[in-house]
Every structure is written in structure tokens, then in C-alpha cells.
Amino acid sequence: MINFPRDTILGELYELEVFVEFNGARLFSCQNKIGQIFLVLWSAEEEDFDLWLYLIISEYKLKQIRYGNEDVQQAFLNPEYGFLYKVIFSFQENQFSAEPISSEQISQEWLPLPRTYLDCDEESYPNINRNISIKGPFIDIGELEIKEVYIKFNGNHLFACENQVKQIFLALWIEDKSDFDSWLYFLISAKKLDDIRHGKIDVRSAFLKPETGILYKVRFTYRENRYSVESIAPEQIKQEWLPEADTHLNCRSEIFSIGEHREYIDNALKMIRETATLKFSIPSDHPNEASISKLGKTLVSMQDFLDCLAKPSKKKPSPQDISKAKKGVEFNIFNTAAGSFQVELASVNFDPDFHGNSSPGNVMEHVINLMRIGSSSSKLEAYISKLPKTTAKRYLKFLEALVDTGGEFSINWGSPTPNRGGQQKLSIKETHEIIRRVKSIDKKKPEEIEIIGVLYKHDNKLWKFGIEDSVSGIKYKGDIVEQARNNAKQLTTDLVYKAKLRKIREVNVGKEERIIYQLVDIEPCFEDE
């Protein structure tokens, strides 16, 4: 039985698999309640203490070590998250302590010899709890981004946020003093947060019983203009900080996309390809099934859109160049799941440039960016107007296919390239609104042109005109705008006129482009002109 640390920042741990054992487990893996996986090495036995190294590790990296693809020593010298934990058990005090350290602080005598490899059978792979979505280190809370606010008055009082390594925190504003504000933060799994959001667990109990057993009291001091963070136990919480007992939330929406993205990055790293997981809510009499027609139409229209986004490297591409660019952004289906029907895609190719950016990754970034813009009129118009007309049409067809599925859509893009990837969700209402706005976008603003010519058509009842340019011979026709109608009443086909025309290029996405002319001013042109 492993003597796990108690009452430390590592949280409550349970065993996954023991790799080396003599007089106890010497190299093993374990996991805590919030989903962090550790590779643990017993490093030293001194007179008054034992020392272990706890390395936070991804499931993918752990697999590589188990199957002998990576050296154990190098795993500890090159931690994925930049640091590991030094854990000491003091015999005299009969207690554990844990502190984060960098790989430079590791003594060589703590580690196994270079080129130490494991050789584990695939069948004995540990049953890691994949239902827990948080993986990653915590020395401090980190850089946070608010994802959802539940209670708000004169500021955000109860909210969920996420740090840069995708850990989720539930936070509560507890003090508002003249010289500082204070909050309580605690790490929470996506499953428990979902239970709180839907009223299955009351808010007060959640703070009194954090999964890791530790909370963070965060204080912002106005005079010093800085934050301070200290860890506290649930017993240190003052009752007046918390909401009333039986305070329940009632969020109708599904759990927001948070914390789970690390899984998609791990998949992309494992396959060394761009990946995309598409989730559809397709109404059906059979919840675990999806319509071939609706799903197929959406997938085809998405690939067509990606094909149009692919840019050949040459300025004047040949048909072969265009075909090659399209093949570079092809995706294959490698898995499906039922429920809210899920399709997992992987790029056929991964052709990174010097910076690690690939063609399928570049087009996927366009998709994520467009979905993030949503129906914001100014941003959407600016983005769409930069796209070729055919590409904008393909985006519209993709959106219309999504609407035809009748439900919500979300995408999780995972990339082998650091700092790439992303996730976004579209409701059916938002998709309808984007379609409406895209259809109304004109690619170019009206131009004004001046010509000298002779009228060949003039209708004062319908206010129509036709004029032929005396220099180029081009004929223009269209409507006479209201501001020009007074001058237009006395028009004749016998005179030469100087006319000001407004040229409007309509590019209603999904239709053919057409040019409209309007007569905005006209006056006779005399011989000396």
C-alpha cells in the first residue's frame, strides 16, 4: 500500500499503477480527484525523512514512458509543465510537505541512471479517470479568464473562471473593505461544477467541501495595487463569507466548454496531425443516432469551405496548384460517438512550416475565428469582405447545413503546434443571425463616376434613365435618385449632358454579383466644356 501525501497541495491521491517495487513502491503513477496524473519516483531515504518527486504528466506522455518510448530520467529532467513537486515525509513530525521545484533543482542522485526504460504491456494500462477534465499544475492560481458569471451586483460575486493550463475555479467575492477586496477560489472538476450549475449541489456546501480539500483566499490591496494568494482549509472559512444554506443555481444551458481542451491537444500530439471534434445536437426519435442526410451535408459543406480557404503558395496558381492546396487541407473521420452526436476528424496531412503552422491548421483557425465573431455586424463584415466571393458562399452553405441539423453545434480543434487550437460553440439562434447578416454584406462601397454623354432613355414616370458615354461608348442605365429628379424633368435626347452616376456593386453572398447604376446629378454640357 502506498503512503500518499496527506493535506498537501497535491490533493487526495489514489494509485493507478506500480512500475518498480522493492520494500514499497519506488516508481508508480497516481491521480488526484481533479484529474491530475502524476509519475512518482522515490528518490532518497535519509535518517529523518523520505523524499519523492511527483511529476505532473499527460496521459499521452505517460503512455510513451510505459511502452519504453521515453527515458524515465529525461521525463523528470524535462517536465511538461515546467516544474514538479518535491515531497518530503518527516519521521519526527509524522507529516508530509510538498513544494514546487524546477528541474534545475533536482540532484542527479535522486534520479535513475540515463537510458532507463520501462516495458509495460498495453493490456495492463491503468484505468485513468477520463471523466475528470482538469489536468495541469498549480503553484499559484495563474492567469485567469472569467467564463461564466452566476451572481452579479456591483461586480461579479459568484463566477467560474479558467487559468492558462485549463484548471477550473469557482470563485466567490467575500469582502469589500475600504482598502482591499477579497475572494475565495477553489479548484473544481467540470462534473462537480455542472452539478452546482444545475442545482444538484448547493453553493455553500461546495465551498465547505472542496474536492482538493484546499481553497485560496485572494486579496487585492488598493494601496499596493497588487494581489496576494494564500491557501486555507475549509475550517478557516468564516460563516459570513458564504451565501445562505440551500442557495442553489439554476442554469438551463449545458456546461460551457472549459477544461476539456487539454484532451484534444493530447490527441493531436499523439497523432501528430490537426484534429477537430464536431458535436451536433441533431433532434431525432433515436437520441443515439444522427440523420445521414443532415450529417453528411454538413460534413461535405465544411470540407468545401476548408478547400476554399486553402491558399496556393503561388501568386498565379495553376489548376494543379489549386488541387494540391485542397488536398493539403483534407480531413478524415477517425471516430464517432452517440448522444449529442460527435464526429472526430484528423487532417490527412501535417505539413508544418518553420513556425509549426500547417495548412489544415491555418484553415481551421479561420473557422474558429469566424465562429467567435458570430453575428457581430462590423467584425463579420470586415472578415467576410476580405474573403473571395466563392469562399464566402461556401461559408454560407456550411452555416445553412448547420441550421438544417436543427440544433447546437460546437467544435474543438486540437493541434500538435504549441499555442494553437481552440474551441467554440454556436446556438441555432446565433447561426440564423449570422446567415442573415452574411447575406446582407456588400463587398464594396458605392463608387461615384462622372461621364459626358447623350441620353438614349428617359422615363419621368418610373424615373429611369439610359445614357451613352460619348468617349467610351459604354451605355449605363438605372434609376434616377430623388435628389436628381428636379433636374431630370427637362431632359431631352437632343443634348449632351454631364452626368454623375453612383455605381453599386452588390455581392449578396450566395447570389451572382450584379452592378447597379443610379443617376445622382445631371446638367447640360455646353460646347466650351
Summarize the structure.
The protein is of the alpha+beta class and 529 residues long.
Description of the structure:
There is one protein chain. This protein is of the alpha+beta class. Helices cover 23% and strands 33% of the residues. The protein has twelve helices and 22 strands. The protein has helices spanning 59-66, 72-77, 190-197, 203-208, 261-271, 292-309, 319-327, 359-373, 377-384, 389-405, 428-439, 485-488; strands at 13-21, 25-32, 37-45, 49-56, 84-90, 95-101, 144-152, 156-163, 168-176, 180-187, 215-221, 226-232, 275-280, 331-337, 342-347, 409-414, 422-426, 447-459, 464-469, 475-480, 496-506, 514-524. Strands 1-2-3-4-5-6 form a six-stranded antiparallel β-sheet. The protein has a six-stranded antiparallel β-sheet with strand order 7-8-9-10-11-12, with no helix packed on it. It has a five-stranded antiparallel β-sheet with strand order 14-15-13-16-17. Helix 6 runs antiparallel to helix 10 (389-405) and helix 10 (389-405) runs antiparallel to helix 11 (428-439). It is elongated and about 115 Å long. The protein starts with 12 loop residues before the first strand and ends in a 5-residue tail after the last strand. Residues 131-139 have low confidence and may be disordered.
